Amino acid sequence: MPDDINAVIDQLTDLEKKILAHIYHYGPDTPWLLARRLLGAAGWRPIVPEDEVEKAVQHLVQLGLLQEFRGSLKGRVTSSVKPWLKVKQRNPERRGRGIYYDLTKIGRKVAGEVWKNYVRSGPKR
Question: 3-state SS of the chain?
Protein backbone atom coordinates (compact mmCIF):
# COMPACT_ATOMS: atom_id res chain seq x y z
CA MET A 1 0.00 0.00 0.00
CA PRO A 2 2.73 2.60 0.77
CA ASP A 3 4.14 2.11 -2.75
CA ASP A 4 0.67 2.77 -4.17
CA ILE A 5 0.38 5.94 -2.11
CA ASN A 6 3.82 7.14 -3.23
CA ALA A 7 2.90 6.41 -6.86
CA VAL A 8 -0.20 8.59 -6.46
CA ILE A 9 1.79 11.35 -4.75
CA ASP A 10 4.33 11.35 -7.60
CA GLN A 11 1.49 12.12 -10.06
CA LEU A 12 0.34 15.20 -8.14
CA THR A 13 1.35 18.80 -8.80
CA ASP A 14 2.62 20.99 -5.96
CA LEU A 15 -0.73 22.81 -5.85
CA GLU A 16 -2.64 19.51 -5.60
CA LYS A 17 -0.38 18.40 -2.75
CA LYS A 18 -1.02 21.69 -0.95
CA ILE A 19 -4.78 21.34 -1.40
CA LEU A 20 -4.76 17.81 0.03
CA ALA A 21 -2.57 18.89 2.95
CA HIS A 22 -4.81 21.91 3.63
CA ILE A 23 -8.00 19.85 3.74
CA TYR A 24 -6.25 17.16 5.81
CA HIS A 25 -5.08 19.69 8.40
CA TYR A 26 -7.85 22.32 8.39
CA GLY A 27 -10.96 20.42 7.22
CA PRO A 28 -13.36 20.65 4.25
CA ASP A 29 -13.26 23.84 2.22
CA THR A 30 -14.42 25.45 -1.01
CA PRO A 31 -12.12 26.26 -3.94
CA TRP A 32 -12.83 29.97 -3.39
CA LEU A 33 -11.56 29.77 0.19
CA LEU A 34 -8.70 27.44 -0.72
CA ALA A 35 -7.37 30.07 -3.14
CA ARG A 36 -7.21 32.58 -0.28
CA ARG A 37 -6.34 30.44 2.75
CA LEU A 38 -4.13 27.69 1.36
CA LEU A 39 -2.14 26.12 4.20
CA GLY A 40 -2.99 28.83 6.68
CA ALA A 41 -2.26 31.93 4.60
CA ALA A 42 -4.22 35.03 5.57
CA GLY A 43 -5.70 37.69 3.36
CA TRP A 44 -8.61 38.51 1.11
CA ARG A 45 -6.80 38.33 -2.22
CA PRO A 46 -6.18 34.90 -3.73
CA ILE A 47 -2.64 33.61 -3.24
CA VAL A 48 -3.25 31.12 -6.05
CA PRO A 49 -5.46 31.88 -9.09
CA GLU A 50 -8.98 30.56 -8.45
CA ASP A 51 -9.22 28.84 -11.83
CA GLU A 52 -6.03 26.85 -11.09
CA VAL A 53 -7.43 25.79 -7.72
CA GLU A 54 -10.72 24.75 -9.35
CA LYS A 55 -8.89 22.66 -11.99
CA ALA A 56 -6.70 21.04 -9.33
CA VAL A 57 -9.73 20.22 -7.16
CA GLN A 58 -11.55 18.67 -10.13
CA HIS A 59 -8.47 16.58 -10.96
CA LEU A 60 -8.30 15.36 -7.35
CA VAL A 61 -12.00 14.43 -7.54
CA GLN A 62 -11.33 12.46 -10.74
CA LEU A 63 -8.46 10.64 -9.01
CA GLY A 64 -10.83 9.71 -6.18
CA LEU A 65 -8.92 11.66 -3.52
CA LEU A 66 -11.59 14.31 -2.89
CA GLN A 67 -15.35 14.12 -2.78
CA GLU A 68 -17.86 16.87 -3.28
CA PHE A 69 -20.15 17.77 -0.43
CA ARG A 70 -23.13 19.99 -1.18
CA GLY A 71 -25.13 21.67 1.51
CA SER A 72 -24.71 22.65 5.11
CA LEU A 73 -21.81 21.18 7.04
CA LYS A 74 -24.10 20.87 10.09
CA GLY A 75 -21.70 22.39 12.57
CA ARG A 76 -18.42 21.03 11.18
CA VAL A 77 -15.66 23.62 11.20
CA THR A 78 -14.23 24.05 7.72
CA SER A 79 -10.91 25.65 8.59
CA SER A 80 -9.21 26.60 11.83
CA VAL A 81 -7.49 29.52 10.07
CA LYS A 82 -10.90 31.23 10.18
CA PRO A 83 -11.48 31.60 13.94
CA TRP A 84 -14.97 33.10 13.58
CA LEU A 85 -16.16 29.69 12.36
CA LYS A 86 -15.67 28.37 15.89
CA VAL A 87 -18.56 30.60 16.95
CA LYS A 88 -20.64 29.70 13.88
CA GLN A 89 -20.08 26.02 14.61
CA ARG A 90 -22.36 26.30 17.62
CA ASN A 91 -25.14 27.62 15.38
CA PRO A 92 -25.10 25.50 12.20
CA GLU A 93 -28.21 27.17 10.76
CA ARG A 94 -26.11 30.27 10.11
CA ARG A 95 -23.81 28.50 7.64
CA GLY A 96 -24.89 28.92 4.06
CA ARG A 97 -25.25 26.04 1.70
CA GLY A 98 -22.36 25.55 -0.68
CA ILE A 99 -20.04 23.09 -2.36
CA TYR A 100 -17.27 21.90 -0.09
CA TYR A 101 -14.62 19.29 -0.77
CA ASP A 102 -13.49 16.68 1.71
CA LEU A 103 -11.07 13.78 1.57
CA THR A 104 -12.11 10.27 0.60
CA LYS A 105 -10.72 7.29 2.50
CA ILE A 106 -7.76 6.89 0.13
CA GLY A 107 -7.48 10.69 -0.07
CA ARG A 108 -6.98 10.83 3.70
CA LYS A 109 -4.11 8.32 3.47
CA VAL A 110 -2.44 10.20 0.61
CA ALA A 111 -2.99 13.58 2.30
CA GLY A 112 -1.53 12.26 5.56
CA GLU A 113 1.64 11.22 3.74
CA VAL A 114 1.80 14.57 1.93
CA TRP A 115 1.31 16.45 5.22
CA LYS A 116 3.94 14.38 7.01
CA ASN A 117 6.59 14.25 4.29
CA TYR A 118 6.14 17.42 2.21
CA VAL A 119 4.50 20.06 4.34
CA ARG A 120 5.31 19.54 8.00
CA SER A 121 8.94 18.50 7.50
CA GLY A 122 9.56 20.41 4.29
CA PRO A 123 10.07 18.99 0.79
CA LYS A 124 12.02 15.75 0.36
CA ARG A 125 15.36 16.10 -1.35
Answer: CHHHHHHHHHHCCHHHHHHHHHHHHHCCECHHHHHHHHHHCCCCCCCCCHHHHHHHHHHHHHCCCEEEEECCCCCCCCCCCCCHHHHHHCCHHHCCCCEEEEECHHHHHHHHHHHHHHHHCCCCC
